[in-house]
Structures are given as structure tokens and as C-alpha cells.
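Students often ask why inverse folding is considered easier than folding. One informal answer: many sequences map to the same fold, so there is more than one right answer. In these notes we will look at a single instance of the problem. The structure comes first.
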């Protein structure tokens, strides 16, 4: 009887511990991720600065966010992240897994390609393919 209670207690403790491992992303990761759903690919492909030929600040930020998203997807795909989804009726806050956030950004491609063409469209399609592969491997 005592052995059964000890085993049951151990199972409960292990279950609670494993739930905590994937609960939420760290605050640093939360700040690094692209938390406005479906917008990453648009900014990732912003034009270069016409004067310097360098990526504009929004593009550099999106590049950092993409890197953070791919890293989080590989490391903790089931961890939860606080996000924002823009709708016609206002902004909606949602808690998603990192995997679901990546999928929402990938799914945003359809909207993005309607607003860009040429190099920006190619860029968005390539980024979406990177997300598709990362999602498949997560």
C-alpha cells in the first residue's frame, strides 16, 4: 500500500514538473518573438533604405523576430506565448503555443502576397517556406 502511494505521488510530481517545463516562454523570449500574429513576413521583406542600401529598422527587427521564432520553435514548440491578433472588431489577445504562432505567421502569407510584388513577394514566399520546414521539424 505504501509503495502504491509512493509511486502515485512520484507520478503526480513528475507530471506537474513536466507541465511546468513547457508552460510559458521566458520573458526574454516573449519580448523577442513576433507576437502580432500574421505580420512577420510583411516586415521581414520591407524594402532597403534607398540612401544606404541597408535594411530599414522594421526589417532588421523582423529579422531578429524570425530568428527568435525559429529558435523557440526548435527548442520549445509547445511553450505558450502571449499574442495579439488584429480583427475588424478590434485587437484580440490570445495565448498560443510557439508552434501555433509560427503557423499563424506562415498562414499570413496569403494576405502579404496580395500587397507586395517582385523581390518582396519572393522574400515573403521564401520566409514562409523556412517556417513551413521548421514547423514540420518541430
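Output (designed amino acids):
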Amino acid at each position: 500500500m505504501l509503495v502504491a502511494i509512493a509511486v502515485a505521488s512520484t507520478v503526480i510530481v513528475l507530471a506537474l514538473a513536466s507541465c511546468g517545463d513547457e508552460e510559458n516562454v521566458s520573458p526574454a523570449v516573449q519580448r523577442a518573438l513576433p507576437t502580432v500574429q500574421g505580420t512577420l513576413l510583411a516586415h521581414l521583406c520591407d524594402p532597403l533604405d534607398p540612401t544606404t542600401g541597408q535594411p530599414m529598422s522594421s526589417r532588421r527587427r523582423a529579422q531578429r523576430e524570425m530568428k527568435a521564432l525559429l529558435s523557440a520553435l526548435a527548442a520549445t514548440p509547445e511553450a505558450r506565448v502571449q499574442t495579439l491578433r488584429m480583427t475588424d472588431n478590434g485587437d484580440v489577445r490570445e495565448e498560443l503555443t510557439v508552434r501555433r504562432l509560427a503557423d499563424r505567421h506562415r498562414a499570413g502569407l496569403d494576405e502579404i502576397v496580395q500587397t507586395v510584388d517582385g523581390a518582396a513577394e519572393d522574400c515573403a514566399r521564401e520566409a514562409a517556406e523556412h517556417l513551413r520546414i521548421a514547423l514540420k521539424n518541430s
